Amino acid sequence: MLIKLAIKSLQNRKSSILLSILAMTVSIFVLLGVEHIRHQAKESFSQSISGVDLIVGARTGSLNLLLYSVFKIGNPTNNISWQSFEKISNNNKVKWAVPISLGDSHKGYRVLGTSTSYFDYVSYGKQHSLTFEQGKPFNHIFDVVLGADVAKKLGYQLNDKLVLAHGIAKTSFALHDSTPFTVVGILKPTGTPIDHTLHVSLQGIEAMHVNWQKPRGVPKQGVLKALKNKLVVSKANHTHNMPVVDSLSSLQPKSITAIMVGLKSKISTFRLQREINHDKKEPLLAILPGVALSELWQMMTILENTLLLVSYLVLISACLGVSAMLLASIRERSREIELLRMIGASPVFLFLFVELEAILIAIISIVLGAGMLFCSLVFTKSYLAAHLGLHISANILTADSLYLIALVMIVTFIIATLPSISSSGVFKRA
């Protein structure tokens, strides 16, 4: 009976109730959205790489090294020599080492030069290995393997030709148009920066920069001859007079950007890290990805707390609006309340009656706010992944979301206490 009476009372005041529901819906949408995206962003970042014990690069900040080597954000301060890579990979504590070379791009997507071991050892999420949607890893100099989003957004298929650009700008006039690459593989989606990356061999990176001259992006005269002298050439296929090379070991890079290292034993992690960081021949930095990520979250704590504070303030202001509306309606409903008292309604009944109205407003707002958030995430999921690199799940029913919903209900009950007491007439009788 109490619920039916509260619903009828709300229906008689549609205009003011709708405004209160709208304000509260927006506040709940903001609160749940900030909290959900905050946790999903953390999870997305933490799942970008797994199984890597150390990342080695030129001496710089640990966050900078993590961002440009894993997330392709920012630029390296310097490269490291190939001799350092060989020294680290030959260390008896190292199980595997994957070289990484950055610096080129294709239509705004980063190009990563590496070896075929990249596809064997680098994993994401909970030790998920990289798998191919189509094709296979590169085994020729001018082969390229595309991340899932690169192939989808640019519409590339196997055996398509593409030209890489010098630098990382989205629009570049320094093209390596004399060394086109052929798509030989497309990776399955991973929900990580790998989806937005083009993968080529280190030798391919070296080959397209041999005697390369800006700004036209055309090799100097004699580069083809130099390549033929250095590489094993298959004379069966030629594209624009460029040789298709069958040997990946013919061009050895002089320097690389970073190294991803896997160890035989986790116990030796800190010992090898100390050895690398104190290398006297070259200034190097070895970081633990998990520790560097923790530093990143510590730096982001202030921003996260600020966003949450703003969300809570928006929620409280909306709840206060509901309380003010209920308090103002008490005078308008004085005859209704007096009638309820005449038929025997106790102060407790009147108190619960107004509280129930506020709770119903909160429940409707929660349903609408959560529904709006779910629909927004469904429709913007691909955009957030493509443009911001955020892979946000549309599943908003998490433990944190339920906690916030319970908090909204509690805050609503507390703030509606004043109009509820006013309607019960406790103060008047006293």
Descriptive overview:
- The chain is α+β, with helices and mostly antiparallel strands and 430 residues long.
- It folds into two domains: 168 residues, no CATH class; 234 residues, no CATH class.
- Helix content is 51%, strand content 19%.
- It is built from 15 helices and 19 strands.
- The strands form five sheets. Strands 1, 3, 4, 7, 8, 9, 10, 11, 12, 18 and 19 form an eleven-stranded mixed β-sheet that branches. Strands 2-17 form a two-stranded antiparallel sheet.
- Strand 5 and strand 6 form a beta hairpin.
- The longest helix is centred in the C-terminal third of the chain and has 44 residues.
- The radius of gyration is 31 Å and the shape is elongated.
- The protein starts with a helix and ends with a helix.
- About 8% of the residues have low confidence.
Rg, Å, rounded: 31 Å
Outline = elongated
Sequence stretches where pLDDT stays below 50 over 5 or more residues: 215-226, 228-249
Task: Give the end-to-end Cα distance, rounded to a whole number of Å.
Answer: 28 Å
Largest sheet data:
11 strands, mixed
Helix content: 40-55%
Give the beta-strand count: 19
Overall residue-averaged pLDDT value = 80
Number of helices: 15
Structural class by helix and strand composition: alpha+beta
Number of domains: 2
Share of β-strand residues: 15-25%
